[in-house]
Amino acid sequence: MRFDVEFFCSCFPALLLKIPYTLYLGLISFFFAFVLGMILEICYTSKNKVLRYIAGLYISYFRSTPYITQLFIFYFGLPQIFTFMRGMPASVTLVISLAMNSSAFIAETIRGGLMSVDKGQKEAALSIGMSPIAMYMEIILPQAFIAAFPSLGNSFIGMVKNTAIGFTIGVIEMLSQAKILGGSSLRFMEAYIAVGIVYWGMLVLINRILKRMEVRICKHL
Asked: Would you give per-residue pLDDT tens digits along the chain (221 residues)?
């Protein structure tokens, strides 16, 4: 089959229009994943054995099973048990499942950042009379955030890419739009190559922005 250059070029305007929605899904998913990841890390390092066990079980499950399996359980399985989920929009299901999946990885990233801070700084802060809350807010968390920032950026990029799996449940983001374009003309190769280029360019730009943010944050540490 001949590669249709004209159709290939015509795909880009429709795909570019889907960038804001794709980024929106990624951003809101990352926000909830980060908050949930912080809660998981607090529970995982808690002195309460029950909280530690629940957090450990949660992290183990979501890190060890394919994301698409989790998405299908949320979209096709749970609504059969919980009736209130039957009218939930596909986009909401995508955001919730993506946030729950990524929070397990973010919790480990946060733990790594906290462990990178020298214990001597904690002891020194407490020895001069700082409260534990002030110690964490002013000394520990800023340094841990810098250490974890590159991995958090990678998590965000991964979440933006994972929004593409939303096409399996009817969420019309960029990959879904490419599938629609390909189906309407039976030119799937051109449509998928085009969406791959759009994803590539978008994520290269995001990565550069994250690199600049990292440099600026390090200057103020």
From this structure: 688 888 899 999 999 999 999 999 999 999 999 999 989 988 888 888 899 999 999 999 999 999 999 999 999 998 888 888 888 899 999 999 999 999 999 999 988 887 877 777 777 777 777 777 777 777 777 778 888 888 899 999 999 999 999 989 989 899 999 999 988 888 889 999 999 999 999 999 999 999 888 888 776 55
Tokens found for residue 202: 């978008």
The CA distance from 131 to 164, in Å, is 45
Nearest to 37 by CA among 110, 97, 145, 96: 110
Q: What is the separation, in whole angstroms, between the first and last Cα of the chain?
A: 57
Predicted model pTM: 0.88
Query: Which DSSP string corresponds to 170-190?
Result: T--SHHHHHHHHHHHHT-HHH
> Which amino acid, 207?
N
CA distances from 183 to 6, 171, 179, 202, 209 (A): 16, 16, 6, 24, 34
